[in-house]
Amino acid sequence: MSCLRSLVGGNQRPTNERFLAPKKTPFELAQHYVPILKWLPHYQVGQDLKFDLVAGITVAMMLIPQEVSLSTIMHVPAHHGLYTAATA
User: Fold this and answer.
1) Three-class SS of residue 30?
2) pLDDT value at position 6?
3) Membrane as a keyword (predicted)?
4) Tell me, what's the pLDDT at 37?
5) What are the distances in angstroms from CA 48 to CA 26, 40, 41, 45?
6) Which of 67, 86, 87, 88 is nearest to 78 (CA)?
7) Across the chain, which distance is largest between two alpha carbons, in Å?
8) Domain residues of the chain, as ranges?
9) Confidence (pLDDT) at 46
10) Distance (Å, rounded) from C-alpha 34 to C-alpha 57?
């Protein structure tokens, strides 16, 4: 019976603290749930903004015709497709 108890963990020893995961501070927890808190302090406007603007324009150029055509296929006014794209 003691053999079975040792297999299922009946006689567990206390865990050494050095093997436990480190405790996170409240700010680290906030960074986990709100990722912008982690990367925004490192954002370099001079280097990154121009690429982000190009990426945003590229996505808009692809998204607008797609949503207008999908709303036309669904027989709803085209501006409803744009509203859907803006809120999604």
Assistant:
1) helix
2) 63
3) yes
4) 94
5) 29, 11, 13, 5
6) 67
7) 74
8) 44-88
9) 93
10) 25
Q: What is the DSSP string of 33-79?
A: HSTHHHHGGG--HHHHHHHHHHHHHHHHHHHHHHHHHHHHHTTS-HH
Q: Which helix (H) or strand (E) segment is 14 a member of?
A: none
In eight-state DSSP terms, residue 1 is: -
Amino acid at 64: I
The encoded tokens of residue 44 equal 């370099």
Q: What would the pLDDT profile of 7-63 be if each residue is shown by its tens digit?
A: 666 566 767 778 888 888 999 999 999 999 999 999 999 999 999 999 999 999 999
pTM: 0.56
